[in-house]
């Protein structure tokens, strides 16, 4: 049995997007092509890879195993092809990512870069390492860098679905007084929320302090407490209700974009759309 690399690529995209429509968009093919690839893999392997649910695809244990193995195979295939190319003039970028970024939006941007510039040597660096480019918010851009905005995000109050604030007719920051709260200490707006609540003498009960987006929303879903987060973080998350009507949060928006030093200008000019 010989598995098709194309089918594996479509499967991995569906696994990451949790949707055949999203996978088709990411792979620039039709949705039936993705569905057919998944069906063929299921027939060849004799397993069920996804359960179709109202909110998208739910991967089975077999899909998790195939994603690990297939993803490595696809990466090895790309590495083999790259090893035969002349890399002397390959453009390079060292990229730093803001911890509170939307992973799906960042993934789409990086895929787009790979398609536009296949020979781009991209490395993702840690917070203390030098970077040519930062995918970050305008508030967190390093001093002395130029900033190109890409998208905006609003903030919402995320509450467990069985929490009283999930059904309360109107919600304000004052309603967080004495309420179990999850602090997202990695968010650049963390200090702003503390200051706003302090001015109103609002003292929530901090039940957890986290530095990871996934943990913050997982704790909300588990009923540990509520949190204030960018809208992307909790979209379509089971067990979480989003309150987008909190008046004090509505003025707050953050601009996500690229902060870069002059040496990266030429590469970014080739990757970013012409603003005109």
From TrEMBL:
Ranges for domain HTH lysR-type: 3-60
Highest rank taxon of the organism: Bacteria
InterPro entries given in the database record: LysR_HTH_N (IPR000847), LysR_subst-bd (IPR005119), WH-like_DNA-bd_sf (IPR036388), WH_DNA-bd_sf (IPR036390)
Residues spanning the signal sequence: none
SUPFAM superfamilies, A to Z: Periplasmic binding protein-like II, Winged helix' DNA-binding domain
Entry keywords, A to Z: Activator, DNA-binding, Transcription, Transcription regulation
CDD domains given in the database record: PBP2_LTTR_substrate
Family stated for the protein in its record: Belongs to the LysR transcriptional regulatory family.
Protein name per UniProt: LysR family transcriptional regulator
Species the sequence originates in: Caldimonas mangrovi
């Amino acid at each position: 049995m010989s598995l098709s690399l194309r089918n594996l690529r479509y499967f991995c995209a569906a696994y990451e997007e949790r949707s055949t429509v999203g996978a088709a968009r990411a792979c620039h093919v039709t949705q039936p092509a993705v569905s057919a690839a998944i069906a063929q893999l299921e027939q060849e392997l004799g397993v069920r890879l996804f359960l179709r649910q109202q909110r998208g695809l739910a991967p089975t244990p077999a899909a998790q195993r195939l994603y690990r193995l297939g993803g490595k195979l696809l990466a090895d295939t790309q590495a083999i092809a790259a090893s035969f190319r002349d890399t002397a003039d390959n453009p390079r970028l060292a990229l730093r990512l803001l911890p509170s970024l939307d992973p799906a939006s960042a993934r789409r941007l990086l895929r787009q870069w790979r398609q536009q510039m296949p020979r781009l040597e991209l490395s993702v660096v840690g917070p203390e390492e030098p970077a040519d480019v930062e995918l970050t918010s305008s508030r967190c851009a390093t001093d002395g860098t130029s900033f190109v905005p890409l998208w905006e995000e609003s903030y919402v109050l995320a509450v467990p679905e069985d929490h009283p604030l999930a059904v309360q007719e109107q919600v304000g920051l004052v309603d967080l007084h004495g309420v179990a709260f999850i602090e997202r200490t990695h968010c650049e707006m963390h200090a702003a929320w503390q200051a706003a609540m302090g001015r109103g003498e609002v003292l929530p009960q901090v039940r957890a302090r986290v530095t990871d987006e996934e943990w913050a929303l997982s704790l909300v879903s588990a009923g540990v407490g509520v949190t204030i987060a960018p809208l992307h973080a909790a979209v379509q998350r089971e067990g979480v209700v989003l309150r987008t009507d909190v008046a004090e949060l509505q003025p707050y928006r953050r601009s996500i974009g690229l902060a870069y030093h002059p040496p990266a200008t030429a590469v970014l000019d080739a990757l970013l759309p012409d603003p005109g």
